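G., the chain you wanted modeled:
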Amino acid sequence: MKHTSFKRLLALLREIRKNPKVKHLYINSGMRLDLANQQKELFREIIRNHVSGHMKVAPEHLNDEVLKLMRKNPSKDFYVFKKFFEVEVHVSVPLSSISTHLRFSLESGCKITALQHIYQILFALFSSENGIFPLSR
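Predicted structure as tokens:
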């Protein structure tokens, strides 16, 4: 399904950016991963021009069994977005100015094994990319 509803927002963002009286227009709310993955042109514009240095991304969970119980999209949406984001960041801004904020809560159906799975994922993501560890051992 082709999504075109974002075209008006994209045009508005570009028009505002051309206005010499507007110095910055930052979007400070979190990004919906499912929409970002479907509307790449809009999110490319947002990442390159409308992020003040911190983009908030908070996937509901990273365990597919828990996500299914929550009736949410699978965890692959996060990884697809993460890859897209990293490419856009390298094109437009220094990586040192970006931080990704992840938060998880204990949801119904979330067992200790799901939390251990998340810890392993976060530990691998953060330690391999920038030496920052999500939790101290």
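Confidence is low (pLDDT under 50) at residues 95-99, 131-137.

Shout if anything looks off.
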